[in-house]
Amino acid sequence: METMLFSGPGAVPYLTNGLRDPAPRVRAAAAKGLFQLGQLEVIPLLTRMLLIPSPVPVLSACHALGQLMRLQPPTLRSDHPLSLSLSREARRRRPPAIAGPLVLRDPSLPELFEKLSGTTNDTNATIEALQHHVKVHPTSRAARRMLAAVLAGMDRAAPALALIESCLAEQPGVLADLLDAYRLAMRIGDLPRAERLGHKVRDTYGALLDACLELAHSSRGGPADQLLDRLFHLREPSMNLYSAMIQLKAKQGDVETVLDLLTELLLARPGNATVAARLAANLPPALSELKSALAQYSRASAGTSSPIPA
Fold first, then answer.
1. pTM (predicted TM-score)
2. C-alpha dihedral sign at 174, 179, 182, 188
3. How far apart are CA 124 and CA 117, in angstroms?
């Protein structure tokens, strides 16, 4: 079988027949040869042989895998079958480029944040800018959600609630939207609506808290133990859970979920310059124009005494 490798890809059919041989040593040798010819899918065959309750197939598979582990693909020619197969597999498994949160892919948002950078000290001007944007771009969920947050901060609960519920109709599982909608329903005294929203808040919050506890338990020690203590004090629905979710997902390296959470937080609390700055710093190159506008907005928002919710 070793000499068959000199035939290159032409040896693949013969070695494939060797995989059906009743002798474990022949099967293992055939799999090893096929791997060297770029047939990467033979590795599962060798690993399955390790599970056979008999010493011969296990030892044969161990021997073949040990020899494969000693191969050094970087030393092979670039046109070697194994090098070509590994290169194709690497390209296939390469993670797709991060496009950023869907709600932020609205091409009208950079212009909006640039306008808002000049109105951070004037709440009425901020409301006018957001209302104009919503009128011109009625499908902009980000603009509607920020307008709702600003109106809520000005004690205009009814229009704020209507805007948040329009956002929930498009994306019903956003915790920040559910919490604010529940609070606004209570504020205007709409108890049936508040009760309906309260059930959704408890279900959503409970599921998220359980997921956070599970993640924190799986990475015990140091900061994780401190986070567990914080989570045990977050039994009642609270926006503070966002901080824990972001921390846990950042530790996992889940960049997309971190961006989604920061976006939800910023749209619900548009006056939070720290969140705006962190979101701007982490936006992908695909949203470079928004990244620049959001960074400008975060600098303008820092240190202001505006009543815009933060």
1. 0.69
2. negative
3. 14
Phi-psi region of 156 (alpha: psi -120 to 50; beta: other; left: phi over 0): beta
Structure tokens at 196: 């309906």
Residue 147 CB neighbour total at 10 angstroms: 24
Q: On the CB side of 147, how many CA atoms lie within 13 Å of its CA?
A: 26
Residues whose CB is less than 8 angstroms from the CB of residue 305 and which lie 6 or more positions away in sequence, other chains included: 121
In a 3-state reduction of DSSP, which class is residue 123?
Answer: helix
Instruction: Write down which residue in 93, 114, 141 finishes a domain.
Output: 93
CATH number at residue 248: 1.25.40
Which DSSP helix (H) or strand (E) runs through 91? helix 81-93
pLDDT by residue (tens digit) across 205-243?
Answer: 999 999 999 888 877 665 667 788 888 889 999 999 999
Residues 125 and 191 in one domain: yes
Alpha carbon 231 to its chain's center: 21
Is 181 within 8 Å of 161 (Cβ atoms)? yes
Packed helices 241-252 and 191-218: angle between N→C axes, nearest 10 degrees? 40
